[in-house]
Amino acid sequence: MAMEIKPVALVLADISGYTRFVKEHDVSLLHAEAIITDLLEAVIDGAEFPLTLAKLEGDAVFLYALTERDAAAAAQDVARQTLKFFDGFRSKQVELIAKNPCPCQACTTIERLRLKAILHSGQAAFKKIRQFEELAGADVILAHRLLKNSIASKEYILMTSAFHALSGSLPGQTPEPRTEQAEGLGQVTVQVFYPGGQPVEAAKIAPAPEAVKQQRGRWLAWHVRLRRWGLKRPAGEFTHLSG
């Protein structure tokens, strides 16, 4: 097993509300997972050099950028890209709400989902086992532990002091300084930014157009009639629609 330690900027982009979203919609689990996949793909599509995808972690995307040459420039670029992730996430969310006629619980509650991001700078051990590469080390653990924090908002960018010292603040935004407790690692000083300008508890995304709502209603009524007649819906019906 080959291993190498490198300086990195780490990004964890995580979907808030995923567990509840899937738990509440076990009947429409396939649709719930398809929605999560589309939203994560929207985030990944917004990533460009120097950011590299490390791996998918269920409802999160783990990325990194090497900072060997110009750590400040790399961190600033990572911060800029992370801010754009939120635009891509919202755009895909609005698109899914507008284009998806499926009346299932997962497809009709897409607007509840939010994005949050953890940004940290430090070192990572790059382990290569056969064709797979994995990042490990205390800084990788810290970034993941910070996903569990005391921030009430469901949408935010959390920068550790190490990352913030390199990147500076986001344009036009004043950070909220906080101290968070990272399990097993102690207290961590962080700076929190709210991409929408303020904390998000239950912010609303524009609802689906009336025509889409009516189409959902027709699909649901048709589905109910099929069940009453003892028929099964055709394979592929109510499948998730991605744009």
List keywords for this structure.
single chain; 243 residues; alpha+beta; Alpha-Beta Plaits; 8-stranded mixed sheet; 36% helix; 28% strand; disordered C terminus
Write a brief structural summary:
This protein is of the alpha+beta class. The protein contains six helices and eight strands, in the order E-H-H-E-E-H-E-E-H-E-H-E-E-H.
Polypeptide structure, described:
This protein is an alpha+beta fold and 243 residues long. The protein has one domain (2-228): Nucleotide cyclase, GGDEF domain (Alpha-Beta Plaits, 2-Layer Sandwich). 36% of the residues lie in helices and 28% in strands. It contains six helices and eight strands, in the order βααββαββαβαββα. Strands 1, 2, 3, 4, 5, 6, 7 and 8 form an eight-stranded mixed beta sheet that branches. A hairpin with a 3-residue loop joins strand 2 and strand 3 (60-66). Helix 2 packs antiparallel against helix 3.
End-to-end span in angstroms?
41 Å
| Helical stretch tally | 6
Secondary-structure element series? EHHEEHEEHEHEEH
> How many E strands?
8
What is the radius of gyration computed over CA atoms, rounded to a whole number of angstroms?
20 Å
- Helix residue percentage: 25-40%
CATH architecture: 2-Layer Sandwich
CATH superfamily caption: Nucleotide cyclase, GGDEF domain
Biggest sheet features: 8 strands, mixed
Number of structurally distinct domains: 1
Proportion of beta-strand residues: 25-35%
The name CATH uses for the topology is Alpha-Beta Plaits
The computed structural class is alpha+beta
The CATH class is identified as: Alpha Beta
Give the uncertain stretches in residue-range form.
202-208, 215-228, 231-243
- pLDDT averaged residue by residue: 83
Coarse shape: globular
